Amino acid sequence: MFSGKGGDAGNRLAKEWLPALSARMRVSLVLAVPREGRALVVAGAVLPPDEAPGWPGSPLPPGTAAGRLLAAHHPALAEPDADALEIRAAGYAAESETITAGLGCAAVGIRTPDGRVGAALAAVLPARRDPVSTVAGLAGTARSFSSALAEFSRSNRAG
């Protein structure tokens, strides 16, 4: 999803959309993809800078909501989760203070044009805010992101 020409579109969309969404939701956002057996951060918009669990190009720590969501859809990832079926059914993963004291996280999938989960969009926020409260906003953005990628894919095939 985020390699080759489609990856260029995904990265461009992330750079365009994530800062505005981050400011509107008042959360840090991370976009992660499954790559080489792990969840790898490909883009982020961070408020403030010390709240992100990873920077572009770095693997996510085990147990993050984004890593758990990707592992639920990509069993080959090195981060197995006993809740994979529940995560797939719910459409999101969440955690609170599992990785970093004082921070929580929720993640939803971004689907590829063929319907597979190809990336995870995660919100990182203070633990005093329920991470699940961000799921609806994240899911709407993920659907829009998926649609934009599908449109890019169609126009790329036509052109």
What are the key terms here?
single chain, 159 residues, alpha+beta
Characterise the protein shown here:
With 159 residues, this protein is α+β, with helices and mostly antiparallel strands. 39% of the residues lie in helices and 25% in strands. It is built from 4 helices and 5 strands. The protein has helices at residues 4-25, 65-73, 84-90, 135-158; strands at 28-35, 38-45, 92-96, 103-111, 117-126. Strands 2-1-5-4-3 form a 5-stranded antiparallel beta sheet, with helices on both faces. The radius of gyration is 14 Å and the shape is globular. The model has no long low-confidence stretch (mean pLDDT 82).
Strand content: 25-35%
* Rg for CA atoms: 14 Å
- How far is the N terminus from the C terminus? 19 Å
What oligomerization state is this entry in? single chain
Provide a count of the helices.
Answer: 4
**Mind describing the biggest β-sheet?**
5 strands, antiparallel
Question: Helix and strand string, N-terminal first?
Answer: HEEHHEEEH
Question: On the 0-100 scale, what is the average pLDDT?
Answer: 82
Tell me the helix content.
Answer: 25-40%
Shape: globular
Helix/strand-derived category reads: alpha+beta
Strand order of the largest sheet: 2-1-5-4-3
Model regions low in confidence, pLDDT < 50 over at least 5 residues: none
Number of separate strands: 5
